[in-house]
Write a structure and sequence with these properties.
TIM Barrel; globular; two-stranded antiparallel ribbon; 29% helix; 7 helices
């Protein structure tokens, strides 16, 4: 295997070892744009002691700051997540971040903030959960601290009006957010899987997934939305 040198883009990162930790690809959602390669509800979790051992090794084998970002699947459905995060804090992990679909209770996320330096909510529209309520509650909870919050808006076709309404509320409450243009899966007939349409999959090539055939997934008006300044657009909406 060929060795590749990776240089940090930011000089301060040279003293940080950043780890993106996919606890599992188990998820309580089944979004139509999420492939089977990142979504499996049958894979069992490892024992908590195994995860703790990983934390121990990370701290033992580097003198750099250890930054861990927990992802999935959906990390918040792991029953032992809070004990694992608490263990990271006790072992001196310098920065802990987590990305969630917001499907747990608002109280759960407020309690979770005591372990985290950063939390990212991914806002999906195919499932009706109290994401906005939890986001605003967390925003209020971390106010005056050095903890951070960010929202990824999954721009599902046909839901842009709702998405813009949510983003206006985020902006009014000083919540940082960004939009995510969805790369769809494809049905057996080669057409992109529409929202709520199950059975889509990746088209794989020797160079990775092929997303070149997604014409018709977004409307022309929705595509125009991505071309401008999102924040200016939201500011003009009444």
């Amino acid at each position: 295997m060929k060795s590749v040198a990776i240089e940090p883009f930011y000089p301060n990162d040279d003293n940080r070892m950043k780890v993106e930790w996919q606890i599992s690809n188990r998820c309580n959602f089944d979004c139509t744009y999420c492939s089977k390669y990142t979504h499996n509800n049958k894979l069992p979790y490892r024992d908590l002691s195994d995860y703790k051992m990983v934390v121990d090794k990370l701290k033992r084998f580097t003198e750099k700051e250890v930054w861990i970002s927990f992802t999935g699947g959906e990390p918040c459905i792991y029953p032992e997540l809070k004990p694992l995060l608490g263990y990271c804090v006790d072992k001196g992990v310098n920065f802990i971040s987590l990305c969630t679909n917001g499907s747990q209770s608002t109280e759960y996320y407020i309690d979770l903030t005591k372990y985290l330096n950063n939390i990212i909510f991914s806002y999906h529209f195919e499932y009706k959960v109290n994401v906005l309520e939890s986001i605003l509650a967390v925003r209020k909870c971390i106010e005056g601290t050095n903890k951070t919050l960010h929202v990824h808006m999954m721009m599902l076709p046909g839901h842009f009006e709702k998405a813009i309404s949510v983003m206006k509320q985020l902006k009014e409450n000083d919540v940082l957010f960004g939009v995510r243009r969805i790369r769809p899966l494809y049905m057996p007939d080669g057409k992109p899987a529409k929202p709520y349409q199950k059975g889509g999959d990746l088209i794989l090539t020797k160079n990775g997934p092929d997303y070149s055939k997604d014409q018709g997934y977004y409307s022309d008006e929705e595509l125009d939305f991505f071309k401008g300044d999102i924040h200016d657009y939201i500011q003009k909406c009444h």
